[in-house]
Amino acid sequence: MRFVSTRGEAPALSFEGALLAALARDGGLFLPEAWPKFQPDAIAGLAGLDYADAAYRIMRPFLEGDPCLADLETVLEEAYGTFHHPAVAPLRQIAPNVFILELFHGPTLAFKDLAMQVVARLMNRALLRKGVHATVIGATSGDTGAAAIEAFRGLEAIDIFILHPKGRVSDVQRRQMTTATERNVHNIALEGTFDDCQGIVKALFGDGGLRDRLALTGINSINFARILAQIAYYFTSAVSLGAPYRPIAFTVPTGNFGDIFAGYAAREMGLPVARLVIATNLNDSLVRVLASGVYEPKGVIATSSPSMDIQLASNFERLLFELAGRDSSRVRSLMEELRKTGAFRLNEAESVQLRGLFTAHSIGEHETEMTIRGLAEETGVLVDPHTAVGVAAAREEGGLGPTPMVVLSTAHPAKFPEAVERATGRVPEQPERLRLRLGQNERCTFLPNDVAAVAAFIENNARVRDKSAGARGRRAGVSA
Ligand SMILES: *Cc1c(COP(=O)(O)O)cnc(C)c1O
Questions:
Q1: What is the DSSP string of 302-369?
Q2: What is the pLDDT of residue 143?
Q3: Separation of CA 132 and ligand 1 centre (Å)
Q4: Residue 300 needs a FRET pair 20 to 30 A away by CA distance; which of 44, 56, 238, 408 works?
């Protein structure tokens, strides 16, 4: 299968090419040239499979004909072998016909492990096959960095540099990152905000020379491989609840629109998805675009669900491409308008389609806290604030008759102990693996909010440089 850019001005790539490039050369995001279709009997055939086997069947058509396909089965087995629940992504019922899908049983206790553990291994194997190194850089407000470092630590072919805003991530989040002492892991605590970190990462990617010298690649959800791995749990959970014979609805705590876009993809692939509910905290640009047709990201508001404190949802561009009938010139003009004026307006046809696919609810801080408390009192189940935003949105959405509602539970309550204790008076129990990890020594480099200083640090520490001295040009083929 080939992967095309949403902006239509970069060459189509193989799966391996899109995996290693992350972002297309024209600034667009990769999508498969067509969605593979699953017939009802193929969906029914997922019932009872191990999670890794089910994920293999879902992901396989996207890798058909690609060198990465030979790695897929082993990679999935290894990746999901790091999970601390034999079902990997189990369902738990919290109300009549309402379930939470626990996506937090991975090594860093957030749903990002489900994709990151797979993507890191696929990348490493692809690079080893080519005999080259690559450099991952990323900015994090907490969860992405922890999941990425955990997945990439110790890999032979990749160095990882993660920037976090100094003093602005939680203690647990910082320690999850800085206690990785492998030589290929580099934590940078930046004197600045998360936006400053992201700005520096963007600037580094924008420097073509540096990008090529270091074979830079990205691991946030602009990388299609992450979305792909996330499609699997929509299928496995739906099948557990009766798909393909009955439709299932999903509510998804949303920030960058990556996770819920995977739900859209599952629907395109033939899963009977009755509804996709976007759950946001006070950062409600997606709720507003549904209501008015105008997409206008505003200033970010800090909330108790920090991994969703995002206004500019990067994966929304993928949906735009689909809403526009895959017309990349339309995507280019909307993105240009956004860049110039800070907003764009969907046309009538696009708005109607958007509202046919999704509904959306923005949940305030008080409601989030009350939801955590209420659920603990009614069911004894503790949920983290991101999951609580999802549960509250599903309640606002209301009953769907016989259609089950699955709320994605994106983080373990022990990852956000202060918020859970404030709401319930109970301190969530810390899993043993987290406790052991947090007691270890930390390693981190402090840098000023300055692109040149960060670039120099990366150039001095990336191993791709050692290699290129002896074998110039033997870097990852990320140029197309
Ligand atoms: C990243 C994250 C989200 C948001 O996911 P997107 O794919 O960015 O929409 C929600 N909850 C938690 C705990 C996360 O880490």
A1: P-S-GGG--SS-TTHHHHHHHHTTT-HHHHHHHHHHHHHHS-EE--HHHHHHHHHHEEEEE--HHHHH
A2: 83
A3: 31
A4: 408
